[in-house]
Amino acid sequence: MEEEPDVGAPSRTERKALEKAKILERESERKLIRLVGRVLKKPEAERSEEEAGVLLLHRDTVEELCKRQVRRNVLKRKQEELYDDADELKSKVKQLAAAVEQAKHLVIYTGAGISTAASIPDYRGPNGVWTQLQKGRTISSSDLSKAEPTLTHICIRMLHKEKLVKHVVSQNCDGLHVRSGLPRHALSELHGNMFIEVCTSCSPVRECVRLFDVTERTSLHRHGTGRRCSHCRGELKDTIVHFGERGTLEQPLNWKGAAEAAEMADVILCLGSSLKVLKKYACLWCMNRPASKRPKLYIVNLQWTPKDDLAVLKIHGKCDDVMSLLMKELGVQIPVYDRAEDPIFSLATSLLSEEVNSHTREVISPHNGQEVCSPGPGDRAEEATAVQGGWFGRGYGKGRKKKKKAA
Ligand SMILES: [Zn+2]
């Protein structure tokens, strides 16, 4: 029997010719797009006859380019930071105050926008971590542990104290809600807390609160902090939930508290969050109910959010500005943050003497302006100025290659 010729596989020369033809085709497409794009940029009156002819001849390309422009404009609008003028802000805050007073079960959702006043960069704002990383820039360290609770954090704690707020769900890892004095049972830190490391070998999970950022050696799928559990010697892990990970720790994530709060909520106030991540957590939005039975949504954010259309009220203002107006409206005093009273100092477990050099991050001290850099002077202290790894440094970039474990 004769063997059938192998028709499926072209020869090497054929393949090369095919590839070349494809490359040429793509190149001429690109040339055409550039040409049409140039013509479209000109005002109609200034186009030559020849140029007008090009547009007529390549209507599909014209249409495609116009669609792209529309998409670009929409994207640009969504990224813009808008500010309500003073009068509008005041009248909107009045509405918000009425909603806060009338709410039976008010829940607050917070994002990075409430911490920007604490010099922590937000994620998606023009200078946010995410935006910077997308542009291929590195993040400069405005030392995170120097950050203190903002006015917004303090206001939220006061609203809880006054029983106006039942629960706070945060996507921030900066630990500032805890440090503002908000009780932990009223808080869900969905993406972790940079000051907490846990031993998951112990049952129940053992928690260690530290006075420094525990995440400097950790990243996506690598959570070991390098320190060990004093009870079982298991490796301690940070509590950070990176993009692409599923947080399973009971604390500090407290998903149970968050879900229960959302279930009970009649009003949800979103502060300083783009909601791009939070919107994906279905249980936070009661989307299984008809629209009229869902909690009323109030949003404070400078940029567009995907929930804007569902909101009763959208306030374009800085969180601190809105909150200070709100507190005035509600007649609630705003105390000043006092570092000496920061609950983190009573929650924290101190390091064993052999662990003192296990990190290079600055240590928070109860006395203002007297931070101690634990490893002392020397080469390690220098390292601390450039933030590497940790809760926002790694694991967020697109398509980053995994680095070999540092020795
Ligand atoms: Zn343990």
From TrEMBL:
One GO term describing the cellular component: site of double-strand break
Coiled-coil ranges per UniProt = 72-106
EC annotation from Swiss-Prot or TrEMBL: 2.3.1.286
- Could you tell me which CDD domains the record lists for this protein? SIRT7
GO terms of biological process kind? DNA repair-dependent chromatin remodeling; epigenetic regulation of gene expression; regulation of mitochondrion organization
Question: Which stretches make up the Deacetylase sirtuin-type domain?
Answer: 86-333
**Per UniProt, where does Zn(2+) bind?**
199, 202, 229, 232
> Which enzyme type, at the first EC level?
transferase
User: Is Phosphoprotein included in the keywords of this UniProt record?
Assistant: yes
According to the lineage, what is the superkingdom? Answer: Eukaryota
Cite the GO molecular-function annotations of the record. Answer: histone H3K18 deacetylase activity, NAD-dependent; metal ion binding; NAD+ binding
Q: Which InterPro entries match?
A: DHS-like_NAD/FAD-binding_dom, NAD-dep_sirtuin_deacylases, Sirtuin, Ssirtuin_cat_dom
Check the record and name the Gene3D superfamilies matching this protein. 2.20.28.200, TPP-binding domain
Q: Which reaction does it catalyse?
A: N(6)-succinyl-L-lysyl-[protein] + NAD(+) + H2O = 2''-O-succinyl-ADP-D-ribose + nicotinamide + L-lysyl-[protein]; N(6)-glutaryl-L-lysyl-[protein] + NAD(+) + H2O = 2''-O-glutaryl-ADP-D-ribose + nicotinamide + L-lysyl-[protein]; N(6)-propanoyl-L-lysyl-[protein] + NAD(+) + H2O = 3''-O-propanoyl-ADP-D-ribose + nicotinamide + L-lysyl-[protein]; N(6)-decanoyl-L-lysyl-[protein] + NAD(+) + H2O = 2''-O-decanoyl-ADP-D-ribose + nicotinamide + L-lysyl-[protein]
Q: Which UniProt keywords apply?
A: Coiled coil, Metal-binding, NAD, Phosphoprotein, Transferase, Zinc
Assembly and oligomerization = Interacts with UBTF and the RNA polymerase I complex. Interacts with components of the B-WICH complex, such as MYBBP1A, SMARCA5/SNF2H and BAZ1B/WSTF. Interacts with ELK4, leading to stabilization at target promoters for H3K18Ac deacetylation. Interacts with histone H2A and/or histone H2B. Interacts with DNMT1. Interacts with SIRT1.
Protein family: Belongs to the sirtuin family. Class IV subfamily.
Q: What is this protein called?
A: NAD-dependent protein deacetylase sirtuin-7
Instruction: Say which species the protein is native to.
Output: Liparis tanakae
- Biological classification of the source: Eukaryota, Metazoa, Chordata, Craniata, Vertebrata
